[in-house]
Design brief:
5% helix; single chain; mainly beta; flat; 1982 residues
């Protein structure tokens, strides 16, 4: 129990109100004579600000009757057992039964601990409490001791709920905080809900709060402890453990907000000790969570190993709603987190803020302060939903560090991550700076560019501060100090100049601004200023400059000091601006420049700014200036009517002895000082040591710091305005800090005298004054008319006067004016003269809509916050004043309660607390039994030691009689003790307590116990103990014996065991009867007897895995007899696999146990009633097994990548399971092996396998060699290759080869070669395996034609011909590969058209070009086939044709001579212009009217000449001609004519005849064609069509004696024949290869009979598979469907016109199953064969087959490969028997179920061609090799085959005969040209007998004649005995040709595909290579 002393130290007395609070703060021990009542005399109410609580571990002692000196509380607690607390420290006993609460045995149905009055009561747990409802604690000062027991909640409710009027203390006097507050398994709810109310507290000194889980039903907050409520209160953790709890927010502790916006209801959590560990929060605060209005202070203890999403250790934020509305975090008071002293926050983790999450704007404004302690070992962990950061601290508010703050060794992703500063967030260094033990790591919010920096400390950084900070990331990152800030820099800091805003290089080279160097005082004095701001002149120092006289700058100028000093050693003012001057001092150096007086005894001011002048300062230090005379104003800067703008920098250590003050700055005579940033510190002056503002001047403070200044006068006691002194002026403060200043008199921070001070921002803190008057922060003097206004957010706290709080002191009638925008986050301490005598007004302007509570959250009393009260009225005034108590008293039972009757009492309910008279039941012992008085905390009445106690004794009749004075109860009886007090109401209240002194009870201590004598070991004899009384008057004693189990014996014990002695004592006059009295030492033990074990005799065993008996063991009893029962054999650390069967004691040792191994047994005889356990050790030695060789060990190798095979060997019986071990080693070339391992080899090579296993008696070993062969490459391994574009160079794209998921390595696993990889088309890639792979696989890629554009065309000028046709002499192209040129051999002009046929200059010609199929042209494709070009059409000449021999009959009849004239060269043959006719001379009797020529009968002219004129037109030149006409007396043949005309025909039409009739008798008729390329005409008028075009057919009737000749003509037009090109349909089955498209994949209809494609088409068509958009595609062969086949690109010759391209289709369908018939049929099963690839193919004669049917498998290795393995397995994996049928075919019998066929191929040995002139690359190689191997051919001699030689008839017949097996003919061939000894004789005979040939006629065979393709195919067809029918596939094979069926059969069976272009070439010679290929395809199935 002594160990419990420190766990429940007398801190209980603290909350019991047993000592003054002031006493607890001292180390002075209480005087030993101090009585209980004396301790109450000076008791005061507990302080209301928990921030000032000290760590309460008081060293207080308690007397036996209560609080007396000399006895430690814990000792009292220990000696008063927990079964009897009555009258001791903890009074009331807590128990539970059936889930209900009992107090002192009384059921509490409402589960409440609630004293009758507001009292102090103590409770302890007498055992574990198990409750079915929450334990409610209501009213008073309550202490509970867990006493090592637990309070367990059985329901989903909180364990304990503490009301807001309770002061609770929780203790646990057990070791290790064993007492717990917890939930039953599976139940949820908080541990303790503590409601803050009237400044109440919950102090935890011990115990453990664990296993609690806050859920949505209880706000998801505070799993262990929730601090909530409506007013101030605090939870103080001083000891104990909070662990293993969870919640959404605050897994361990939550300090939450339940109030609306704009109200300060601060609740506190103060941690002085204890542990918060292993708690979890799903959202915020794993260990501790604090909301706005909350304050967490950790000064001791440890927060460790907690987890959360934000703030693993501590998290700050806001959540929830109140009063139906959401909380606006921006308007809520801030939350506070403070870490100091011995606090340690470690091992916690969260994505955001592993150690501490210091809130952000969305979670309430957080103020985090760290003045000591350690945050280390915390982690920011990854979470996909958060940007995780801040291993130590994630900052989202303000952060102030000082002292020995240590934030180190925190991480994120295992990298250093201590304090994470989001963008725009910084730290400040607090008062006193950082101590030597400080160390803080920092992480910025982003990666920094070289030279880039971010601010990490925004203020307070003194010199050397940078040494306490380290950069978490990057070796180039470092910390640098800039002014009072610290920055985190990557590399070297670059910055912008403060004036010009440009990049600063510390030289004259600033961007856009010219700076002039100053290197001397003279140069500075001569530095001229500009005329305006825009004309500012810029200067910079290049060295220190010392002034001998005052510098008086004029105009606008700026001076950059850099790192240099502007100084003087003279007692002069350094700088005095002229009126109107505008001077800017700046320092852009690393450390900053200075303006200073140097040397001892040197005086003078720094800068003087007269009226009209402006002085601006950046980053400059003005120091060591002194105004040494009383009449000299100002020291650092004297603003005498001018303006001073301080942007940054410092005024340090300046002193003014002037009566106007202003050590740092004096503003006088209407001047203005604007402080934006920087520091004014360490100044000294009588008034305004920092800043003095006088005589209608203005001081605007927007930022910066005024600190460490002291207002004092060494010669007097006066000193006012340590920071700022304001007299007859205005001070406006909107930001910044005034801190740590002092005044020897008043106004340590600010002194306001007859002035206006308006403060709407900033802080005034830490200032002080030494006078008895207040005003350490702000003093508003009563002199004159001063105005003090506050608004916005301001702080005036922490200021002192003579050590006491003094923030704002209002003297006289001064009040504070409240601006309407005053924020409730402001904090202002206040006091006013006269407040000690009652309420006085201190503020005006309070808004009616704001509650008093609102302003009370802002203002607090600087005096006693408990007795001083802030009130208001309905006129907007606030009051402050002290309260005076008037006491009355009431009594209830033993308690007297004081109540203040004044209306404005600040106590809760006017409660002055209570005193209680206590006396408990006593037992007679002859001593006095007195009552005690106990005062509760807050007792306001008389000191308890002044209150008298009166005693009365109860008589037999029940009445009480007062006892004599100074006599006290001693004898047995009943007594009453009373106390009385009289109040101001003259009423007396009396409190009483009754108690009894009862008859004494005997205890075991009153007796002496003697155990049995002699040696207490079992021997069969009884053992007798004795008990004697120490009291003479005690009654008769009866001794009883009890077993350890509690059973009473009938007499003294005999058997071994432990016995307890109890006694019964009869009652006497002095003592009560006693029953079952005993003591802890009233025990004795009879020891058990010893015994020994005899070991088994067998001590060896064989490691054969067989059980072997070891024999029995025996134990020896005390009487010498041996017994074998009860002995247990136990193996000790047996080797693996060793077992023991206790039945028969049989040991089994496996072969794995080494020979010689010692196997140890422990033999034990179990302890019995009277005998001890016996033990012995026994060792067995393991023997060896014999060695044996494993015979017939074999191993079959496998192909690389295949599943490994297993070794085989002759079976051995009784192999021991688990002993089989297979290892492998590489077989070296010298026959040795490498080291054997269990790793199965995978690479190609030779190996040895070793097999070992064991039987019961032997160890077998066998080896076998095997080989892993290379794996064959397959097509599927080669990935598709991206298409390329023609570039004239060879394309060699990378090839990706994969084997499953493995990508093979080029030149390691394979090599690559390329063919056809230059020109457009399909390039081939050959992949050849090597290393682990063999064989080849091929792939292709397309080389697309290069895109080509037409860049020019040479158009020939033309003469008008009536058409738009243009003549193109040449075309130029763009896009050709350099060095290549296309000529007309490579392209053709398909069309060239003028835009019109008429004559004109620069007419547009559209040229259409098509590329021909040439080696060069096929590498290109035209992006556009047309091109526009300008050309000229000139006028054509009209050629007038006139007759030569016309005759006109002189008969007076007119003849139209226009029919004799024609015009050529004219479109349509008709004259272009008007025709005119005239006689070319005078011919009497001859007239020419128009075109009618008439000759009179009597004309004498024999010939006339006629002039013919054709007029010029737009397109034709004019023309003239003359001709002569004979005049004759003969007649015209007027009836001569054709029957019809013109005639239209089509190319290919038959000849036709059209004759002219009507010729005169005797005249002969002849015919003529004008164009014989179109048609010819014979003498009969029969016209034969030759080509397409136009021709004129003319008939002429010859002249006779009576008639002149005549002619007639008609026009013949022959149209081009029309062609239709149709793509052939294709079909295939799913899984087949895509059918190849080639020259035989289309048909052409419309060819003129006898003509071929080569004459009809100039460009043959291309056939492709296309998609719905016409784009080329690859058909999907994995599923059924159709794909369009399209022919295109063909061009016709001049006699043909392509009128249509008709699409075909590819139909892919499922392969039909074998069998047939309908109805019920035998089921068939799939035959699965591998797809093509793997260097060969495997096919089946059926895709499905019935059970029992024979299935044929055909195997065809690729060229250069041979079959390696072939296996057929059924659906169970069983191999089926295969029968080799030869020639690559195998058969098997189909089972009932699917079968799988698998084959592997291996590269055949390098083949040598059978003939020197046959290469492996030749298409006929395989055919020739087959023929040679089959004995069909031996070549032509000389190792030559003669591939291109024509095959003779003898040779082909011989080939056929040999292919048929060279059967013996029945007889000789009866052919005259076939000798019987010829090599072909038998072949010819056989062929004739089988109808293959009948010779060439006349008994001749013509053996040496060349065999045509038609003949060769006919021989093959006849030899095959096949038949054929249907449409012929070739255009040059007539249907009635003798070879037609043969060719059709050959095409259908894939033996031939013709010679291209839809032609077979029947008359072409058949080469030896061709005929052997035909044979090979026929007989070898290719």
């Amino acid at each position: 129990m002594k160990k419990r002393i420190l766990s429940c130290v007398l801190s209980a007395a603290l909350l019991l109100g047993l000592t003054p609070w002031s006493a607890l703060a001292t180390d002075d021990p209480l005087d030993d004579q101090t009585s209980q009542t004396e301790l109450q005399t000076n008791f005061q109410s507990p302080p209301q600000d928990p921030d000032i609580y000290s760590d309460p571990q008081p060293n207080i002692t308690i007397g036996e009757d209560g609080l007396k000196s000399g006895t430690d509380l814990e000792l009292v607690h220990a000696t008063s057992t927990h079964t009897d607390h009555d009258g001791k420290t903890f009074e009331h006993k807590l128990t539970s039964e059936n889930g209900q609460l009992y107090i002192d045995g009384t059921l509490q149905k409402n589960y409440q601990i609630k004293p009758d009055t507001y009292a102090t009561e103590t409770y302890y747990l007498a055992g574990d409490l198990t409750l079915d409802d929450t334990l409610y604690i209501r009213g008073g000062y309550i202490s509970i001791c867990l006493n090592g027991h637990s309070i367990t909640q059985n329901r989903d409710k909180d364990v304990i709920n503490v009301a807001n009027d309770v002061y609770l203390s929780l203790y646990d006097c057990s070791e290790g905080n064993a007492g717990r507050i917890t939930h039953a398994e599976g139940k949820t709810g908080r541990g303790i809900k503590f409601s803050a109310g009237i400044g109440n507290t919950f102090d935890m000194y011990g115990g453990t709060i664990t296993g609690n889980h806050a859920t949505a039903t209880n706000d998801n907050m505070g799993g262990g402890v929730l601090v909530t409520g409506s007013a101030k209160g605090s939870f103080n953790l001083r000891g104990g453990v909070i662990t293993g709890n969870s919640a959404a927010n605050g897994g361990g502790v939550a300090v939450c907000s339940t109030q609306s916006n704009n109200k300060d209801t601060s609740r506190y959590f103060n941690m002085f000790g204890g542990t918060i560990s292993n708690n979890q929060a799903n959202d915020n605060g794993g260990g501790v969570y604090v909301e706005n209005n909350g304050r967490v202070t950790v000064s001791g203890g440890e927060i460790k190993n907690n987890t959360a999403t934000k703030g693993g250790g501590i998290g700050g934020g806001t959540s929830g709603t109140t009063n139906g509305g959401s909380i606006d975090a921006s308007k809520c008071p801030p939350l506070y987190i403070t870490v100091s002293d011995r606090a340690k926050i470690t091992g916690n983790s969260a994505p955001v803020g592993g150690g501490i999450y210091a809130g952000d704007e969305a979670y309430g404004y957080c103020r985090f302060t760290m003045t000591g302690g350690e945050i280390s070992g915390n982690t920011s962990v990854y979470n996909e939903n958060y940007t995780y950061n801040g291993g130590g601290v994630y900052l989202g508010g303000t952060m102030t560090v000082s002292g020995d703050a240590k934030i180190v060794n925190n991480t994120k992703d295992s990298e250093s991550n201590n304090v994470f500063l989001p963008q725009d967030y910084t730290m400040t260094i607090g008062d006193g700076g950082l101590g030597s033990g400080a160390s803080i790591g920092v992480t910025a919010s982003k990666e920094l560019a070289d030279g880039e920096a971010v601010t990490i400390v925004s203020s307070g950084a003194a010199s050397g501060s940078e040494n306490y900070f380290t950069a978490d990331a990057g070796t180039t990152y470092n910390i640098q100090r800039v002014g009072e800030t610290l920055v985190l820099v990557n590399g070297t800091l670059t910055h912008k100049h403060p004036i010009c805003g440009k990049k600063c290089t510390h030289t004259s080279k600033h961007e856009d601004v010219t700076w002039t160097a100053i290197n001397s005082a003279a140069a500075l004095q001569n530095a001229a200023g500009g005329n305006s701001e825009s004309d500012t002149k810029y200067y910079y120092l290049t060295n220190d400059v010392t002034l001998d006289s005052t510098w008086t700058p004029s105009g606008y100028l700026a001076l950059d000091l850099g790192d240099y000093a502007l100084k003087t050693t003279q007692s002069i003012d350094m700088i005095q601006l002229n009126s109107g001057a505008n001077l800017t001092l700046t320092s852009c150096g690393t450390h900053g420049g200075t303006v200073q007086h140097s040397g001892r005894g040197v005086y003078g001011r720094g800068v003087i700014v007269p009226s009209g002048a402006t002085f601006t300062m950046y980053n400059v230090e003005l120091t060591n200036h002194e105004a040494a005379e009383f009449s000299v104003n100002g020291a650092g800067v004297y603003v005498n009517g001018g303006t001073f703008n301080m942007r940054s920098g410092s005024l340090v250590d300046n002193t003014s002895k002037s009566n106007s003050g202003g050590g740092g700055v004096l503003i006088d005579n209407g001047g203005t000082f604007n402080l934006y940033s920087g520091t004014i510190s360490d100044g000294n002056a009588y008034l305004g040591a920092g800043v003095s503002v006088k005589d209608n001047s203005t001081f605007n403070m927007y930022g910066g710091t005024i600190s460490g200044n002291r207002a004092s006068d060494p010669t007097t006691i006066y000193g006012e305005g340590g920071g700022v002194y304001v007299e007859n002026s205005t001070f406006l403060m909107t930001g910044g800090e005034i801190k740590d200043n002092s005044a020897s008199d008043i106004g340590g921070g600010v002194y306001v005298k007859n002035s206006t001070f308006k403060m709407t921002g900033g802080e005034i803190t830490g200032n002080g004054n030494g006078d008895n008057r207040s005003g350490g922060g702000v003093y508003v003097a009563s002199v004159g008319n001063s105005t003090f206004t506050v608004g916005g957010t301001v702080t005036i706290t922490g200021n002192k006067h003579q050590g006491s709080t003094s923030n704002v002191y209002l003297n006289g009638d001064n009040t504070i004016t409240l601006a309407s925008n005053l924020s409730d986050t402001s904090r202002i301490g206040v006091n006013k003269a006269g407040a000690d005598k009652g309420a006085v007004k201190f503020a005006t302007g309070a808004l009616s809509e704001k509650t008093l509570a609102y302003y009370k959250s802002i203002f607090s009393s600087d005096v006693d916050t408990h007795t001083y009260k802030i009130t208001n009225d309905d006129k907007g005034n606030l009051y402050i004043g002290a309260h005076q108590h008037t006491w009355n008293y009431t009594a209830k039972g033993g308690k007297l309660t004081a109540t203040c009757s004044a209306d404005d009492c600040t106590l809760y309910g006017g409660n002055g607390s209570s005193v209680t008279i206590n006396a408990s039941k006593q037992t007679y012992d002859g001593n006095e039994k007195k009552a005690t008085i106990v005062a509760e905390r807050g007792w306001q009445g008389p000191a308890v030691n002044t209150i008298p106690i009166t005693y009365e004794v109860k008589k037999d009749d029940g009445t009480f009689v007062k006892m004599a004075a100074n006599s006290f109860p001693t004898a047995v009886g009943t007594y009453r003790a009373s106390i009385s007090l009289t109040g101001v109401d003259k009423k007396t209240a009396t409190a009483s307590v009754e108690y009894t002194i009862s008859k004494a009870e005997l205890t075991a201590d009153d007796f002496t116990f003697t155990p049995p004598s002699g040696r207490l070991v079992y021997d069969g004899k009884a053992k007798v103990a004795t008990v004697t009384s120490n009291k003479g008057a005690a009654g008769q004693i009866t001794v009883k014996y009890y077993t350890e189990e509690g059973s009473e014996l009938k007499g003294p014990p005999t058997n071994a065991g432990i016995y307890t002695v109890k006694i019964d004592v009869t009652e006497t006059e002095s003592y009560q009867a006693a029953t079952d009295l005993t003591a802890n030492n009233w025990k004795f033990a009879i020891a058990k007897a010893d015994r020994t074990i005899t070991l088994p005799k067998k001590d060896t065993v064989i490691n054969n895995g067989k059980p072997q008996a070891l024999g029995d063991a025996y134990w020896t009893a005390v009487d010498g007899k041996q017994y074998g029962d009860g002995i247990r054999f136990e193996l000790v650390d047996p080797p693996e696999g060793v077992t023991f069967d206790d039945n028969g004691h049989r040991l089994t040792v496996p072969a794995t146990v080494k020979v010689g191994t010692k196997i140890k047994f422990n033999l034990t005889a179990a302890e019995s009633t009277n005998y001890k356990a016996a033990s012995a050790t026994f060792t067995v030695t393991v023997a060896a097994k014999s060695e044996a060789t494993l015979t017939s060990c074999q191993m079959t190798g496998w192909t690389y990548g295949a599943a490994p095979n297993q070794p085989s060997y002759k079976p051995v019986s009784d192999v021991i399971d688990g002993t089989l071990k297979t290892t492998y080693a590489t077989k070296n070339s010298d026959g040795t092996n490498s080291t054997f391992t269990e790793e199965v080899p995978t690479a190609v090579g030779n190996y040895t396998v070793k097999v070992t296993f064991e039987t019961a008696f032997s160890v077998y070993t066998g080896t076998a060699d095997f080989t892993i062969s290379p794996k064959s490459l397959t097509q599927e391994m080669v990935s598709s290759i991206q298409d390329q574009t023609y570039c004239a160079n060879a394309w060699e794209p990378d090839v990706v080869v994969t084997d499953g998921n493995k990508t093979l390595v080029k030149n390691s696993d394979y090599t690559v070669s390329y063919t056809d990889n230059i020109n457009a088309g399909t390039a081939k890639v050959k992949v050849t395996g090597q290393g682990n792979y063999k064989g080849t696989a091929e792939a292709t890629f397309v080389i697309d034609p290069a895109p080509l554009t037409i860049t020019g065309a040479e158009v020939a000028a033309k003469t008008y011909d009536g058409t738009k046709t243009a003549t193109i002499n040449g075309v130029t192209f763009g896009g050709l590969v350099p060095g290549e040129v296309l000529t007309t051999d490579d392209y053709q002009i398909t069309d060239a058209q003028f835009n019109s046929a008429n004559v004109s200059d620069a007419k547009k010609v559209t040229v259409t070009v098509a590329l021909k199929v040439t080696d060069k042209a096929k590498n290109y494709t035209l992006t556009s086939p047309t091109y526009g070009q300008a050309a000229t059409i000139s006028k054509a000449t009209q050629n007038i044709s006139v007759p030569q021999d016309k005759t006109l009959v002189k008969n007076g009849a007119g003849v139209d001579i226009s029919q004799w004239v024609s015009v050529s060269g004219v479109e349509g043959g008709s004259p272009a212009g008007a025709m005119s006719y005239a006689l070319n001379g005078n011919y009497p009797g001859v007239t020419l009217t128009g075109s009618t020529l008439t000759a009179a009968k009597n004309t004498t002219a024999d010939t006339v000449t006629i002039k013919v004129t054709a007029a010029a037109t737009q397109n034709y030149e004019g023309a003239e001609a003359t001709f002569s006409v004979k005049l004759s007396d003969k007649l015209f043949q007027s009836n001569f004519q054709f029957a019809s005309g013109p005639i239209d025909k089509t190319y290919g039409n038959d000849s036709f005849t059209m004759t002219a009739t009507g010729a005169a008798e005797g005249s002969t008729v002849s015919y003529e064609s004008s164009d014989t390329n179109v048609a010819t005409v014979d003498e009969n008028g029969t016209v034969t069509i030759v080509g397409a075009g136009n021709a004129t057919i003319t008939a002429t009737a010859a002249e006779t004696k009576d008639y002149v000749s005549a002619n007639k003509s008609y026009t013949l037009t022959v149209a081009r024949a029309e062609l239709t090109i149709t793509a052939k349909d294709q079909s295939a089955y799913i899984g087949d290869k895509v059918p190849e498209l080639g020259a035989d994949s289309y048909t052409v209809t419309g060819l003129v009979k006898g003509e071929s494609l080569t004459t009809a088409l100039t460009i043959l068509p291309t056939v492709r598979y296309v998609d719905e958009n016409g784009q080329q595609m690859e058909p999907d062969m994995t599923k059924a469907g159709k794909t369009v086949i399209r022919a295109s690109g063909a061009e016709a010759s001049g006699n043909y016109l392509i009128v249509a391209f008709t699409d075909g289709k590819l139909t892919v369908s499922a392969r039909p199953s074998s069998g047939g018939g309908g109805g019920s049929s035998t089921p068939s099963y799939p035959v699965s064969t591998p797809s093509k690839g793997g260097n060969g193919s495997v096919s089946s004669n059926a895709k499905n087959a019935a059970s029992g049917s024979t299935v044929t498998i055909t195997v065809k290795p690729d060229s250069g490969y041979q079959l390696e393995t072939l296996a057929v397995t059924d659906h169970r994996g069983n191999a089926l028997k295969l029968t080799d049928q030869g020639n690559g075919t195998y058969t098997f019998t189909m089972p009932s179920g699917q079968v799988d066929v698998k084959a592997t191929f291996t590269q055949a040995a390098d083949e040598t061609s059978p003939f020197d002139d046959v290469s492996k690359d030749d298409y006929y190689y395989d055919a020739v090799k087959w023929a040679a191997d089959s004995g069909i051919t031996g070549g032509v001699g000389g190792s030559l085959f003669g591939s291109d030689q024509s095959c003779t008839r003898a040779q082909i017949i011989t080939f056929l005969w040999r292919a048929a097996g060279s059967p013996e003919p029945k007889g000789a061939a009866d052919m005259t040209d076939v000798p019987q000894d010829a090599y072909y004789a038998k072949a010819v005979a056989w062929a004739m007998e089988n109808g293959i040939t009948s010779g060439t006629g006349a008994d001749r065979f013509s053996p040496h004649a060349a065999c045509t393709r038609a003949q060769g195919m006919t021989f093959l067809f006849r030899s095959s005995k096949a038949s054929a029918s249907g449409t012929l596939a070739f255009q040059d094979v007539a249907a009635d040709a003798y070879y037609a069926q043969a060719v059709k059969w050959a095409a259908d069976n894939g033996i031939t595909s013709g010679i291209g272009g839809g032609l077979f070439g029947p008359d072409n010679g058949c080469t030896r290579a061709q005929i052997v290929t035909f044979l090979w395809k026929l007989y070898a199935g290719k």
